[in-house]
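Q: Sequence in, structure out?
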Amino acid sequence: MTELRIAADLVDRENEKRAKAHEADYAALGDHLSRRNIDIDAITAKVAAFHVAVPSWGVGTGGTRFARFPGLGEPRGIFDKLDDCAVINQLTAATPSVSLHIPWDKEEPARLKAHADALGLGFDAMNSNTFSDAADQQHSYKYGSLSHTDAATRQQAVDHNIECIEIGKALGSKALTVWIGDGSNFPGQSNFTKSFERYLAGMADIYKALPDDWRLFSEHKMYEPAFYSTVVQDWGTNYLIANTLGEKAFCLVDLGHHAPNTNIEMIVARLIQFGKLGGFHFNDSKYGDDDLDAGAIEPYRLFLVFNELVDAEHRGVKQFHPAHMIDQSHNVTDPIESLISSANEIRRAYAQALLVDRPALENFQQENDALMASDTLKRAYRTDVEAILAQARKKAGAAIDPIATYRASGYRNQVAAKRPSQRGGSSGIV
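A: Exactly. Output:
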């Protein structure tokens, strides 16, 4: 039986407070949608089946380039992180899997799996770390990892990724995400062609170690930590990587890894069209890779991304099963609350995209009726689907209002009493 970190009767009591209003809202929305020939229960069932993985690193307080200010009840290690992740899933029923980052989350796999099983959690994609140095590693990644000029450093990075695969196999994971910080800060510092050749060779070695039923996700990032050039800098380069490596290699799209005003939904459409969309790291941004809560800045863009995903489902694209993961950093909020909010916003965008009148949209597109095509999308986006999200949670035994229920539980203060507080701030991103 699943171990609950928040008492089930508290969730029931909180739901009872809101049940009457929720039922009225759901019925009213159902009547509204029925006039548009949409079955609200069918939409709710699809939303309830949509899950997104939470990042183990997301339940800790993040930081900026300049400082980090610890929060109450910071997780002391991966087992505390899993406990916090279990709370998110208990209250949302949307996040049953966790994405680990090695070596930060490295522990005996059998212990990890046993603890996750007890909490009703599974493991999503594994994440390697060759963008910072571990305490016991022999070679530094200061000047790169998979693209480093030194063969021994490159081999160390390859070996680390293969170790992540082995850990993931023991945990039941089926994917490896590789993001590197390799690049240069000065013109002439790196040979663009040679560094990319070295990267591709290292990735090919990692690819060979993949089990047959695994996928390899490569992730691009325009800048940071290198500010002049980045080895894997855009979706075109990412596509070249996936296409070069083979059929088990795919592109991962992080919503914050693009230049301002980039048409991300078009990138998603292109990768779907050519069979190389592996999945997402959901977050939001105002200026760059801000790692803000999903939907915090541009909820319409998030909807437009999901419009492309639902369009692919509608068209019956073969072997279409992108991975959905959150990747964000929380500096001034309770990380659990931010992840609850993000999971709900991601589901909201999916629900809204399911409401798009596809035949009408296709007709307006065919007739070059730009205004009505745009209005068809906006009509779906403007629909308040909160009652659908709440119903999906309620039917799964989760919370009608998950953040209010979380606050009523006092969970943060409870773990703060058990986990030693961290005094003062520290420098840099953690």
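The longest strand covers residues 249-254.
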